[in-house]
Structure formats: C-alpha cells, structure tokens
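Hey, resending since the last one bounced:
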Amino acid sequence: MIVKHRANIFKSLTCEWATPQTLFDALNYEFAFTLDVAATKENAKCDRFFDIDKNGLLQRWAPERCWMNPPYGPDLEKWIRKAWEESRKGAAVVCLVPSRTDTIWFHEYALKADEIRFLCGRLRFGEGKGRATFPSCVVIFRT
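The structure tokens again:
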C-alpha cells in the first residue's frame, strides 16, 4: 500500500498551475514583464500572452521581458530550453518551475541561468486549497 501511494505522490490531474498572484506581483515589480509566454486566457498575467493556440514554443520572445510558468508535464524541458535560447537572442525570461535538481533539464538549462531563487516552503497555485507536492524555484535568464 505504501509503495502505491509513493508512486502516485507526484501525479496530478493537470499540468497547468496558475501562478500565485503575490509571487507574480513581486517579480513583476522587479522585472516589469511585457509578455506571458505560457498562459491561458483565464490565467494570463500580462496583457500580451501566448496560449495553447499561439503556442509559445513556436513564437519569438525576444526582445521582451517574459514571464514563464510553463505546463509542468513532459514538455517542461522544451519550455526551459526555449527560455534559455530566447535569452541568448535578447529576451529576459523569468521562469517559475519545479525545483527538480535531479533532472536532465535542470542541469542542461536551469543551471545556465544568471540566477536561481529557491523558494521556501511549498506554493499554493491559483485557487488551490492545498499546497504543491513539490518545491519550486525561480530561474532567471537575463539578456
């Protein structure tokens, strides 16, 4: 029974986690975001945003100041790689991602960031009643 529970501990019904407003507000004050690159119409944090139809992975982000809270599913590596690539082209990208320091994507892309801020405690995403089952960090790629 314990093994089954542990096997499911990191599973979720969704890969989209709405950014906590207070966290976004603090980072937006610091970075003045102009584009939300991975949003839905309901949870976009900037007036300009890419949703699933516009597919931020296929768009140019530079020279914007970008907020990125990507889907936390199997495509997360594509998002963090895109953030790093766009920063090399002139975008500033601030990413809210799970603090998965044991993953390949973290070592290949997040560790190339100009700054990583590990968040204390577990976030409460969007209107969620409980806290996340994983730690989070803010990965910052400056231009």
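Helices lie at 2-7, 21-31, 76-88, 104-108.

Sorry for the duplicate.
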